[in-house]
Amino acid sequence: MTGLAVAAAASCTLDECLENASECKGQECLDANTLATSTGDWWCKCTGGASGTALGAPAECEYTYGGCAEAENRQVCEASGQRCVAGTAGDAGDWRCACVAPAKGAPQSRGAAVCGLDECRDACLTCARAGAGEMDPCTLAGQECYDSDVSPAALSTWVCRCTEGVGEAPLAPAACQDGECVEGGAAWDVCRGAGQVCIDDDVAQDTWYCQCASDSTERALLAAVAACGVNECEATPANADVCRAAGQVCKDPDTRLESTGDWTCVCPGAGSVSAVGRAASCAVDECLVAANRAVCEARGETCTDPTAAAGDWNCTGVQLLPRGEDDDGCSFWACWWWLLLLLLCCCCCVILALLLFVRRRHENPDEDDWKNNTDFKATAEDAEGLEMEDEARAEYKEGAGVGRQESSKSLLYGQSEGGASTPSDAV
Q1: Which residues contact 223 (CB under 8 A, 6 or more apart)?
Q2: Which of 110, 169, 279, 427 could bond to 174 as cystine, CB 3.0-4.6 Å?
Q3: Which pLDDT does position 180 carry in this prediction?
Q4: What distance in Å separates the CA atoms of residue 1 and residue 11, rounded to the nearest whole number?
């Protein structure tokens, strides 16, 4: 119940859902009338694509669409004390679990959400704040409110802690005491003398302890000085940056306060080289790089790095070339140039051999081959026959010409004997 008035009766309100929300079993709890005089009028309402209400008890919900219409989906949410909320109508896979008030948390799609209840910050019946917007009693007393368990099922787990002095109390302001670390006290002197801070968070005797400065989280056992140290790689980021820029790790082998300037840069890998106060000169094994090993392992080979030089790692003796390689690890100028040169050499050898062969045949022909060649014989016989035919044709033409001349003479002049014709008879 909340309400406040000055010199008059207050108008008190009472939201019954702060106490009865869990009774709705994942449904929405509503209080129709929050006046203090109106009680027993809270009710539960179905949500997430379902319809139904009930007064003072969980409602019988009727799911008309979405993934919450499936019983197995609703059971996922209800098993965690949450409610099922449907998404897009007609999409059976669009559903999520939502926290039930007063617990808070982001809804989770198709699974239980992560819900919490911080009784120092949230508003609930058991919370430190009686109602939303009100200040908790711890803060009002100048103390700190702390909830040690923020799970929705853990209720009334908040306490008030003293900010000045020592003391703690559950569900109410604590009675604070000075404690053993009061300034000028024996415990305070011990810690201050060691350059540390005295802390006493328990009202019991001899529960104080010394804690190192802010650059260290070391603390001592009860009633003792802490063994403080400073890690120079953490306390001075510039030291770590020197090593990180070289791909190395910064380490401080001795973190005692009196040991300074001994931070080192350590090379990666087993048996690594290191250097004090600077980056080390590392002999890098390029086969330690996962990508390089993967290239060799994909071929069923072993990665080896013969020297500390960059880019000379190999797969079973086959040197891999820098970036710009083809899929077989062979660039154009490194492999195909040699193949082209080899092909040209082979062509030159063939041409030279042919030239030598032709020259030898021309200078020393094989007579037996020429004589035994039947094609050559046939060609020679044909040539001889053609030559004889040409001579016969010439003789025929010559003889035929002489015969025609003699016949012409006989016809023109005739002959005196034998009744031969005379030229006049011929006319």
Answers
A1: 187, 206, 207, 208, 209
A2: 169
A3: 84
A4: 10
Record the tokens describing residue 123, joined without a space.
């508003």
pTM score of the predicted model: 0.43
What is the structure's pLDDT at 327?
A: 46
Residue 249 CA: distances (Å) to CA of 101, 157, 216, 253, 257: 49, 44, 20, 12, 21
The residue count of the chain comes to 427
DSSP run (H or E) holding 276: strand 274-276
Handedness of CA 180, 186, 188, 194 (dihedral sign): negative
Alpha helices in 95-160 (DSSP H): 137-140
Per-residue CA distances from 394 to 199, 214, 397 (Å): 146, 135, 5
In terms of Cα–Cα distance, which of 208, 117, 224 is closest to 165? 208
- Token duo for residue 356: 């030598």
Cα 71 versus chain centre, distance:
38
Q: Which contacts qualify for 98-107: CB closer than 8 Å, 24 or more apart? A: 98/48, 99/152, 100/21, 100/22, 100/24, 100/26, 100/27, 100/152, 101/17, 101/21, 101/28, 101/29, 102/18, 102/21, 102/127, 103/152
The pLDDT of residue 393: 59
| Residue owning tokens 């559903």 | 95
CA atoms within 13 A on the CB side of 405: 6
Which residues face 35 on adjacent strands?
13
How far apart are the C-alpha atoms of 406 and 419, rounded to whole Å?
18
Low-confidence ranges of the chain (pLDDT < 50): 5, 132, 215-217, 318-327, 329, 332-333, 367-368, 370-371, 373-380, 404, 408-409, 411-427
